[in-house]
Specification:
Blueprint (H helix, E strand, L loop, with lengths): L1 H63 L5 H4 L2 H14 L6 H32 L1 H16 L5 H9 L3 H25 L3 H9 L4 H38 L5 H10 L3 H29 L14
Helix pairs in contact: 3-11, 4-5, 4-7, 4-9, 6-7, 7-9, 8-9, 9-10, 9-11, 10-11
């Protein structure tokens, strides 16, 4: 009895002392992992900047020394000069910011409409197998058509205003989002659906509270590619015929054999494409916060 009485408190004390030790070790490990991740991010960004600087420097060197003909390829200094000229003195179509705003409007409207229609129709056909079987040949046929060619048709239908560019951008966005939403609706865990029905959820509640959240990872993944399609639709629509926009600036630069103007338009387009990519990534993290993250093994940490 004495032995049990003596060892009991000692054992409890040992366990009590062990809990803070484990907690401290876990905290130290988390700090170490965060520090390693921060250094990794710094290294990745440094390499990215170095690759870009090397490419631009090599391009400038080859164009300045005559190894490549700057009449056809332009050069970075000429691109910067063209951008600065557009900022200070405007373009032949008016202030640069007006051209950027027109293209941005077309892109955002086309992106929003295409995403909304793609999600709605993708989820609907993913849930309703009969309708999916009915519309499958039509969707596959439309998807096989080179949709860029529809820009000419939309220009005839809607004129040279913003409508034809928004429509082309929306069509390009629609199919990428649609197929991801459709597949996401089909890949929902059957056990979740069965449990929701057992709890008395109707078709609408099952769709809104089970199917849509489960398909979110598929849908948000498609948004990264979809925004690129939206920009493509807006720019190509402006190349086919427009009164304002970055595509018109690029077309005029091409017609005047001005490669610096072409690259300047592409640089501006790439800039807001990268900004949109960052915003979509933040939105993706926000929408998918509820999903559990995979645990790293000790070797990976």
């Amino acid at each position: 009895m004495k032995t049990d009485t003596a060892t009991g408190p000692a054992t409890d004390g040992t366990l009590a002392r062990g809990e803070p030790a484990k907690s401290d070790a876990g905290t130290a490990r988390a700090v170490r992992v965060r520090r390693q991740q921060a250094w990794r991010d710094v290294g990745v960004n440094a390499v990215r900047v170095a690759v870009l600087a090397a490419f631009v420097g090599l391009w400038q060197l080859l164009a300045s020394t005559g190894v490549i003909d700057s009449f056809y390829s332009g050069k970075p200094s000429g691109v910067c000069s063209k951008l600065w000229d557009w900022v200070r003195h405007g373009t032949s179509q008016g202030p640069l910011w007006d051209q950027v705003w027109v293209t941005l409007q077309e892109t955002l409207l086309g992106f929003g409409i295409g995403v909304a229609l793609g999600v709605v129709f993708g989820i609907a056909l993913g849930r309703l197998r009969f309708l999916a079987d009915v519309f499958a040949p039509y969707i596959k046929t439309l998807n096989s058509i080179p949709r860029i060619l529809l820009g000419s048709v939309f220009a005839i239908w809607f004129g040279l205003g913003i409508g034809s560019k928004v429509t082309l951008a929306a069509v390009l966005v629609f199919f990428g989002v649609f197929f991801n939403a459709f597949q996401g609706a089909r890949e929902v865990d059957r056990n979740l659906l069965a449990n929701a029905r057992i709890l008395g959820a109707g078709s609408t509640r099952v769709t809104l509270h089970v199917v849509v959240p489960s398909a979110l990872s598929w849908i948000t993944t498609s948004l990264h590619v979809a925004f690129g399609f939206a920009i493509t639709g807006a720019i190509v629509g402006e190349l086919l015929g427009a009164q304002q926009g970055l595509g018109l600036l690029i077309f005029q630069a091409q017609a005047n054999f001005d490669p610096n103007g072409v690259f300047a338009g592409l640089v501006i387009t790439a800039a807001f494409a990268l900004a949109a990519e960052g915003l979509i990534t933040l939105l993706e993290r926000r929408l998918l916060r509820w999903q559990p993250r995979p645990q790293k093994s000790a070797a990976q940490a």
